[in-house]
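Design a sequence for this backbone.
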């Protein structure tokens, strides 16, 4: 039925429930998961004046935290024996 399942990750409890459900579906259908985390750089750039000199640092922090969320979720999925990217 499913071959690949796209799973958005943002670190919220709802996101974690979505990942658990995606793992359940992937296990039943022998599907792989593709995880995604989005940082909307364009909206951030347009509002950069609000952040003053810290805009670049804040954007880097958001990107770094997103990468960590993805790595943690990937490890959890792999621990379930599923393919993930």
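Sequence:
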């Amino acid at each position: 039925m499913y071959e690949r399942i796209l799973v958005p990750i943002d670190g919220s409890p709802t996101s974690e429930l979505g990942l658990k459900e995606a793992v359940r579906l992937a296990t039943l259908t022998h599907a792989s998961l593709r995880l995604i985390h989005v940082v909307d750089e364009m909206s951030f750039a347009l509002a950069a004046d609000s952040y003053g000199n810290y805009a670049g640092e804040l954007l880097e922090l958001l990107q770094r935290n997103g990468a960590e969320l993805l790595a943690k979720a990937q490890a959890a999925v792999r621990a379930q024996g599923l393919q993930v990217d």
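Residues 55-79 form the longest helix (25 residues).
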